[in-house]
Amino acid sequence: MSNALAFLKMKTPADMLAVNFLSTSGQLKGRFVQEVDPPWTIWWEVPDEQGFMSRIGNMIQGAIAAPETIWEKGSPGSQLKSMQWLDLFRKAVIKQEDSRQVAGEVILMTDNKEVFFGAVKKHFVLQQGQMEFASFEGRRDFHLIKISNPSLWVFNTLDQSGFTWFNLVDRHSGIFVESGWRIHDISGLDCFNQFRVVDGGVLLVQKDGRLVNLKPAWKKGDSIIKVDFNELKVPQKNEESAITVKPFLRPTDRQHLAVFWKVDNHQQFKAIVANESLKSFRNYRSWFCADGRLFIAARGNQADRALATVLSDAFAPFYESEERVMIPAGKVLSPRLSSERLHTFFKADSKDVICIEEVDGELSCTLLGEKDMLAIEDFIALEVERAAHRAETLKPAWKFEFKELKKKKQLIEIEVKDAVGSNLKAKSEDGQVGSGSVSAGSGGKRRESRINLDVNPASDSEIVSLRLQVEEVDRQLNNNASDAALWKRRADLTSKMRLRVSSLAALLNSAVLTGNIDTMIDCALAYVKDHTTLSDLGKSTLTELEKGRLLSAMRDEAITAEFHYLVLLVYGARFNDPDIFAQAVAGMKTGFASDRRQFYGFNEMRVASGGGAMNVESRVELLKIDDLPRIKLNVKKFLQYVGCCPDMFSIDIVRLQLAKMLALHLNAEVARSLISNVFLEYRQYTAKAVSPASFHTYFSYLVGSWPESIAHATDDSSVSRWLRLLGMEKIRETPLRDFFTGELYRPPYLFNRAEEEDEKYGLINLAKWMGELDKTDFPDSSDGKQIARAIYRRYSDGNKDWSAFFKAAMRSGDIVAISKTQRLLLLIVSEFGPHKDFEQFILPAQIDPNQKHDWTIYTLTMYCDMFRLCLAYRRPVNEQVLFNLLVKRIPHPPNGWQDFIDSAEWIILCVLLTSSGVRRVQLDNLTTRAMYWLNHWSKHNEHEMYAQTLTVLSFLGIGILADLVPEKLEFHQLLEKRRVFWIQHAFALASSGQKAFNSWHQACSN
Questions:
Q1: Three-state SS for 387?
Q2: Half-sphere exposure (CA, 13 Å, Cβ side) for 690?
Q3: The model's pTM
Q4: Which of 730, 598, 746 is nearest to 309 (CA)?
Q5: Quick check: 730 and 744 in contact, CB under 8 A?
Q6: CA torsion through residues 801, 806, 811, 816, sign
Q7: How far is CA 677 from the centre of its chain?
Q8: If you average pLDDT over residues 529-538, what whole number do you get?
Q9: With CB atoms 3.0 to 4.6 Å apart as the test, which of 78, 187, 713, 806 could cross-link to 37 if both were Cys?
Q10: Per-residue pLDDT tens for 806-852?
Q11: How far apart are CA 975 and CA 980, in angstroms?
């Protein structure tokens, strides 16, 4: 190569577009060239290397920052051939779209005045779009109209030969591309992503490769509009007429979570009850109607989702479209009516359930009262009771004698329904008769809350404005969750939106942060006012029977953690019961983790968008059919990397598995459009085979007949786990807090008690108190959850040695011991929140690619755990560098299988949580490695290893739809911080002891 030439590497189409723009505008000399040998890299050849970079900076004249970071200088690896811009443009820069889409901002170019005025006039008539225009004179006059939020209908009504419109390129101002075409990847971390047009200019990219650079002087569109009204007439109002709209159910492609079922076949339901554990029905309720109809509802996010799947397979599923309004799955009520309006129309209580369905083509509505709701156990208990009457019991032969037993008078309180003044007689078993008269209970004086949640309904425009303000407050809270003023502001806004519980929950957060006991008591009294079973808390005195009923109602699993804690505190202080007060404090010290009681989810924005009110905890959200262009791009890239496998059978298996997954999360029609049909011949084959032919038949049958083949997943084998996770349905049901500790993941390694006692840096050797734990808290073998809970309990009890293992392990420098510290910390933080005292033991977010120790499963998961902890505490970490390093360390066949399978799922889940620009590339690299292993085990006919690799590819496949996980993560982090300051409030009450109880008792007495 000549020394007089310099070469700039063209990494992306954006680089090529930028160079051509500078070249055609006279700012840069040179030509495009391409290597004749793979990888056929494209370069820009620049004559005369001397002073090149400084001249680039001068020529660009401030259009971009730091010129030396834009292009990479280098030397071509082979002979070069010249490339014409038009060929390069068509092959690598621009691509034709399937249809002509309209962007959020467009520029319409025309030389036809009728088209120009028609476009302006029709947009004005529709009152859609913000318009500006500019006119240019020359050999041929032409006009530009810049429209924000344009109307495709207007474009379709204009003379198609008289204009062209250009769409704004995503995330770029001033660059527009001709409609029906798009530019490849105009933005990215390693491309020329600062390319923009300065000083209000525009760059129009035409489909033939020409670039039009203009600097229009824009004028407002309404400056050429004249509005001509006829004489104003004021009509008389008709008091009687009204517009009648008959609601109906229309089909929808949106996927909804089933939370309600109509049982038509009682025998089938009995069979399900017989096959399921009674515990599974704990959070389900039912209505048994006189006409024989049976309805089942899942209550709260603690309802067993595996049972929900069984019910959805057997009976007609419904989802909650509005609060306590149930609609059949796959349907939507049109017009959409609010819960409040429907309940008012049917004159129903706000807590009653309205079930809307179609019967014989007509809309049928069923009202199910809250007071008629029964627990599933009531039916089963009835059968047991009947059986007990038919069984004979044995009488004990033992006799007990108690000498010198003294009788003591007891005051027995009996609640009766007789009228006041009636005489009563009671007879004991030994014949003694007691008598008395019925008197009225005191009932006690009721204390009212000073919080007023009754406000006038806001208009639709006011609701929109309030929602935007709430979203802004949430963004500020995410940066400072302990700002009491922000929580108070949120409470005020949601109160105006008539979101009573949300407003009280936010106000409670503010009161806890400021230590305002009076406000907390007022919140409790306002909360119970809306709950009839809890309303007795407002009374000053209660009978023992009333207290029992009240305590039973307080333990309802539907009450969220903070309100459960609050009503127990107020009960203990109000009725002078220190035991109940202490019980509340002890429960909140662990965030009621043993009860799996969730905190309030602040999900009103999701509910307002049709997400329903049940299952409120932050869960993983996936892309939907509305995001089809984004899904198409992800599928295409995924299949490209799947195609790297030399085994065609394995490629078809993965394609078919992906099609099944997409059909489950989207629908079958969309899945077929994304992935062409895959034909695999199979027959029903249930025994594992040994020859290659039958090996293929076995896996073809399991994938082809899925989900029916899940019936074979009856053991703990790798094949069974793969079949259960093939559709990745669990990811939609997994709260983000359980993302790394729930059913979805497999533990990277296990803690062995004997090894922890023998090893130099084992847990028991470094923290002697762990040796005293029983097998419940420290089993012989576990994934660490029980150990993490024991450490947290030690911490919450105020023992200073809770951190003994963490301190000693961090000092030891032993990678295995340090890895276990991060593992246990993650388990603690996931269950009990990111407390400040735990942060000191998080590894520094520094990655050393040249470290001397071996890369094992402990090393890989240590960095993943450190990353998750940094997310929880919002500590900065270079996600791109970290996971590029980890992905490169994942082994290829034939060696390193165990490290691959133990760490792959773990690393994939971590990458799904990142927001790095190379996130998709990292998932693609993992796909390549997984396909290598799939080919390897296919050659060896290893069923278990082949199934494990297919499971890894299921995790990678769901990454196509999991693009929203980082967006959901921020709000989840806010709720986790909220959980911490509630737990810290309980710590403060526990340390104050009797003094805290006295303060609450006095506040309740005032």
A1: helix
A2: 0
A3: 0.52
A4: 730
A5: yes
A6: positive
A7: 31
A8: 84
A9: 78
A10: 999 999 888 899 999 999 998 898 888 888 899 899 988 776 666 65
A11: 9
- Among residues 742, 744, 739, which one has the least CA distance to residue 727? 744
Report the SS3 class of residue 283: coil
DSSP letter for each residue of 157-216: HS-GGGEEEEEEPTT-SSEEEETTEEETT---TTS-TT----TT-EEEE-TTS-EEEE--
Residue 986 has a CB neighbour count (10 Å cut-off) of 21
Q: How far apart are CA 556 and CA 597, in angstroms?
A: 10
Q: What is the dihedral of CA 504, 509, 512, 516, to 10 degrees?
A: -50
Has residue 795 got a pLDDT over 70? yes
- C-alpha 525/C-alpha 445 separation (Å) is 14
Task: Measure the CA–CA gap between 403 and 604, rounded to whole angstroms.
Answer: 65
Whole-angstrom Cα distance, residue 422 to residue 331? Answer: 58
CA–CA separation, 181 vs 205, rounded Å?
Answer: 10
* Contact status, residue 83 vs residue 42, Cβ threshold 8 Å: yes
Collapsing DSSP to helix, strand or coil, 257 comes out as coil
SS3 label, residue 533: helix
Identity of residue 689: A
Nearest to 876 by CA among 922, 849, 915: 915
Please identify which residue in the block is written with the tokens 């208990």. 381
Q: What is the pLDDT of residues 391-420, one digit of tens each?
A: 333 444 444 444 444 444 455 555 555 555
Strand, helix or coil at 224? helix
The Cα-based distances of 578 to 528, 569, 581, 943 in angstroms read 21, 9, 5, 60
Write out the two tokens for 104: 């959020």
Token pair, residue 530, equals 């809306």
- Of 20, 6, 29, nearest to 195 by C-alpha is 20
Four-residue CA torsion sign, 79, 85, 89, 93 = positive
Three-class SS state of 90:
helix
Cα 852 to Cα 58, 823, 857, 859, 896, distances in angstroms:
46, 22, 15, 12, 18
* Exposure b/e, 605-641, CB count within 10 A at least 16 = b: ebbeeebbbbbbbbbbbbbeeeeeeebeebbebbbeb
Digit-coded pLDDT (tens) for 418-466: 555 555 666 555 556 666 655 544 444 556 778 877 778 888 778 888 8
**Torsion sign across C-alpha atoms 331, 334, 336, 342:** negative
The CA–CA distances, whole Å, from 441 to 10, 549, 746 equal 88, 16, 59
Q: Which residues contact 454 (CB under 8 A, 6 or more apart)?
A: none
What CA–CA distance (Å, rounded) separates 216 from 801? 72
Mind listing the pLDDT tens digit for each residue in 874-927?
A: 788 888 888 888 888 888 888 889 888 888 887 888 888 787 777 888 888 899
Task: Tally the C-alpha atoms within 13 A of residue 72's C-alpha that lie toward its C-beta.
Answer: 11
CB of 27 closer than 8 Å to CB of 72: no
Nearest C-alpha neighbor of 737 from the set 936, 527, 913: 913
Joined tokens for residue 525: 């009294």
Q: How many whole angstroms separate alpha carbon 36 and alpha carbon 76?
A: 10
CA separation for the pair 907, 958 (Å, rounded):
14
Q: How far apart are the first and last CA of the chain?
A: 92
Nearest to 913 by CA among 683, 618, 689: 618
What is the torsion angle, in degrees rounded to the nearest 10, for the CA atoms of residue 459, residue 465, residue 467 and residue 472? -160
User: Which has the closest alpha carbon to 249: 325, 312, 352, 347?
Assistant: 325
DSSP strands (E only) in 215-259: 219-220, 248-251
Mean pLDDT calculated for residue range 218-229: 64
Strands (E), 19-162: 31-35, 42-47, 72-74, 80-83, 94-96, 105-110, 130-136, 142-148
The number of helices, as runs of H, and strands, as runs of E, in the chain is 36, 29
